[in-house]
Fold each of these.
Amino acid sequence: MGDFDLLKQKVANDEADLCLCNMQTQTNAAHKVMRGVREQEIGNNPFMVLVSMVGSTQRDVLANTIDAGPDDLMVRPFSRDTFVRRMNELASRRKKFVVTSDYVGPTRRGEGRDEEEENTTEEFEVPNPMRVLGYGGDRDELWKDIRAASTQLNARKLRSDIRLIDTLVREILPDYENSAIGEEFFDKIEKLLATIGGVNRRGRRMGDENLAELCELSQSILTEIKERPSPPNLRNISALPKIVAGFKSVYAAIS
């Protein structure tokens, strides 16, 4: 579909089980829609079958498309028989999903990804609308499975994000204490703010006000550090480890 606003609207209204993204020009818009689906920020089905069709073989275009989490990536031109075969494969043998701090989607193991990520990220089965509905399955039962798997996805994503928050806070704390402020320090602050922003939105969708309030407090402290990094504020130095402890406590309560 060329009109990605219309596509986004239909996806948000859960009007599709399969999304074919024919990306000729609006590749960034397509990536945002796919990421939004996988991150549960667009629609209620993060397991919608997503297929990207691209005309470019440029490495960065292909990498960015794969990182958006499609089930399949097809490079044009391709034949009708190839398309039918790939759709049948998705219906019968959909890949398991993985969740990390920066990726939600079909497993990419064996594709040259980070070895540590591959060793610590557990794959899990997800509902397959193409298989269920293609074989005459019940849509209500499918949505029951989607909701159950979404709860599991939420827990996995929160765990990955909180691990990243823990790592980044540990890395910035000594630099902040010693006023060793450089470009890398600010990059990590931005990464923290973005990650906590995602956790905040997820917490609100889950109806967890405690998590949302913790995120807002954390964002306020980190924004203050970003705007006035030196000299270090003793109150903020003390608050950073407490932020991490708070996230771990909230995760333990909901997992």
Amino acid sequence: MKCEYCIVAHTAMAKKAGASQEEIKTAIMVAGVVSLNSTVMYGNQYNQEKWRKMFQ
């Protein structure tokens, strides 16, 4: 997620597809939040079965 080559390429492709700067910033923010939450859950070894039950 933090590869400067990927960021340059994906930003260019998003702009070519018509994404606004605001949409690109939002996508970056969402990616950061997903990464943060994944790291916190994995790092704290949160019980996956307990997690799954919360969404049934």
